[in-house]
Amino acid sequence: MQKLIIATKNKGKMKDFNQLFSKYGIEVLSLLDLEEDIPDIEETGDTFEENAAIKAEVIAKKFHLPVLADDSGLEVDALGGEPGVYSARYAGTHKDDNDNLHKVLEKMTGVKEEKRTARFVCVLALAQPEKATIYKRGECEGHIGVEPVGENGFGYDPIFIPNNYNKTMAELTSEEKNQISHRRNALIQLEEWIKEN
Ligand SMILES: O=c1[nH]c(=O)c2ncn([C@@H]3O[C@H](COP(=O)(O)OP(=O)(O)OP(=O)(O)O)[C@@H](O)[C@H]3O)c2[nH]1
Ligand SMILES: [Mg+2]
Fold this sequence. Notes:
This protein is 29% helix and 21% strand. By secondary structure, the chain is of the alpha/beta class. It has a single domain, classed as Maf protein (Alpha-Beta Complex). It has a 6-stranded mixed β-sheet with strand order 2-1-3-4-5-6. Magnesium ion binds next to loops. It holds the Pfam family Ham1p_like. Homodimer. This is dITP/XTP pyrophosphatase. Its EC number is 3.6.1.66.
């Protein structure tokens, strides 16, 4: 395999995937890289698995090719697992990273450090013509800071401090993020398939 379509329009995810796939010599294409204009796919599921499958299967069917999709998000324990599957649209359907992370910070006002535990979750769904969809889940544990710090990454990276670090995910280089991230931890489980295909 020389090229793989990833059923996403998220440029932050694609930056991660570009780097993660480069070691396999595979070029990844997002829905924004295709010639055809692909309408937004409605994420109607209640779980990361359901939403990842919806995205991967719609595009795999359309092109008759293997397609990977990523559904991911932040689970904050003090917020009962929110924003979870609603991470991209937590502060509204305009899907603004800055508004989303400020909503989390606001809701966490007054919550003590030891109660600020959280994790990033990434579920990858690999849909292939005539085959059952394969799921892989990766997580990255950490806690929520009190203000946004750092310029790298995307989404909630500026407020997420991974375990064993004293800086946010947005202060890590992309190489550092890609050694510990939820996305990396999910993708590594597909390594055998990637090498065989
Ligand atoms: O700080 C972060 N670092 C990450 O590494 C990360 N991964 C996911 N997220 C958050 O979770 C939403 C995914 O929602 P999501 O899977 O529906 O994706 P999306 O709607 O943005 O794009 P698409 O892939 O569906 O086209 C994203 O928008 C982000 O808010 C992250 N935040
Ligand atoms: Mg989405």
